[in-house]
């Protein structure tokens, strides 16, 4: 089941196994370059960086809200 369905119908399912603990922690590091953060978040969403950056602001907010909810409870059962 998708974590987020975009307005164009694409279904995004987060794969938290694709990023390391180091990459996850770096998301919260203000010293990390934005390009690296974008690459990490695109990877966990199964998107290219260009696809990620081309999201509308509202879709990006929905996506990030769902991502951080999933990241807070990575072992929660989807059922």
Q: What gross morphology would you assign?
A: globular
Strand order of the largest sheet: 1-2
Strand content: 5-15%
Structural class: mainly alpha
What is the terminal-to-terminal distance? 10 Å
Mean pLDDT across all residues, rounded? 91
Biggest sheet architecture: 2 strands, antiparallel
Unreliable spans are none
Order of helices and strands: EEHHHH
Rg: 12 Å
Helical fraction:
40-55%
Number of strands: 2
Task: Compute the number of helices.
Answer: 4
Describe this structure in words.
By secondary structure, the protein is mostly helical. The chain has helices at residues 21-26, 34-45, 49-53, 57-72; strands at residues 4-5, 11-12. The chain has a two-stranded antiparallel sheet with strand order 1-2. A hairpin with a 5-residue loop joins strand 1 and strand 2 (11-12). The radius of gyration is 12 Å and the shape is globular. The mean pLDDT is 91.
Sequence-ordered SSE layout with sheet pairings:
Layout (H helix, E strand, L loop, with lengths): L3 E2 L5 E2 L8 H6 L7 H12 L3 H5 L3 H16 L7
Q: How would you briefly describe this protein structure?
A:
With 79 residues, the chain is mainly alpha-helical. It contains four helices and two strands, in the order ββαααα.
Primary descriptors:
single chain; 79 residues; mainly alpha; 4 helices; 49% helix; 5% strand; globular
């Amino acid at each position: 089941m998708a974590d987020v369905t975009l307005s164009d119908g694409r279904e995004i399912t987060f794969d938290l196994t694709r990023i390391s603990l180091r990459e996850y922690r770096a998301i919260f590091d203000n010293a990390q370059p934005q390009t690296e953060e974008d690459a990490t978040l695109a990877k966990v969403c199964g998107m290219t960086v260009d696809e990620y950056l081309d999201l509308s602001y509202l879709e990006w907010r929905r996506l990030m809200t769902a991502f951080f909810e999933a990241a807070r409870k990575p072992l929660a059962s989807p059922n």
